[in-house]
Amino acid sequence: xxxxxxxxVHITKDRKVKTLSVAVAQDKEVLAAVSEAVKLGIINAILVxxxxxxxxxxxxxxxxxxxxxxxxxxxxxxxxKRAVEEVATGRAHFIMKGxxxxxxxxxxxxxxxxxxxxxxxxxxxxxYEVPNYHKLIxxxxxxxxxxxxxxxxxxxxxxxxxxxxxxxxxxxKVAPICAVEVVNTSMQATVxxxxxAQMNKRGQIKxxxxxGPLALDNAISMEAAEHKGIKSEVAGDVDILxxxxxxxxxxxxKSLTYFAGAESAGIIVxxxxxxxxxxxxxxxxxxxxxIALGSLID
Length: 298
Description:
This protein is of the alpha/beta class and 298 residues long. The protein has helices spanning 5-12, 28-39, 51-60, 76-88, 102-109, 150-166, 188-201, 216-220, 222-227, 246-258, 284-296, and strands at 18-23, 43-49, 69-72, 94-97, 123-129, 137-140, 173-178, 209-210, 214-215, 240-242, 263-269, 275-276.
């Protein structure tokens, strides 16, 4: 089992090298991450954006973009369109967000003419290496679906399981986390969590173990679960945290980064190719890990 994000980078070297298309690439951290990924042999890359700015940033920060193809497009929306076209035409295998808004990139990905929409639900999956947790942990969805209903939660869960399986994590343990660990009909998240667990037991959700509702402490701490008398295959050993809404996912993810010092990787799945998507404020290292994660998803 992969236990660190550095191990994630390492295993990509044994896979077929894919080509990444970067939309609006004129950003120091993006260029540093892409350059390092190319250097490590993880990917080939196509940079779409303002060529003059890309070259200037690279020179000023001693970032090598040698042997990386650049498509000069100064308009951000047009750059997003061109980056998506590189994937749609087969010249690239997946796409990365640079210095533009998520909505502008997704607008082009979801454009029917691009043909990248796919049949499934698009959702955001984050992968964290938390210093005081014993393995890598997934968090979903803190970036795409604001208030998912039960059907959308099934789609979000299935997407996260697909990503975990791509990392050779078999039968990942999933906790739909809530404020409490019992069903309370006035708290819809607990009702949904119970339904997801029952659907899993009856074979409607496959390839994982789901138990809930679980509060966050029960999901990540065996001691907390035992103290509350909770007996669960998931408690204290969770692989995937399924949050009830985008706010809780956003807050929890940023808390892991800024309070707990966690390293992370993030992608959108559900389209015909992975979309490397992390905050524009994230480090080059986080972006490198995200590129590596995206390269492993078929």
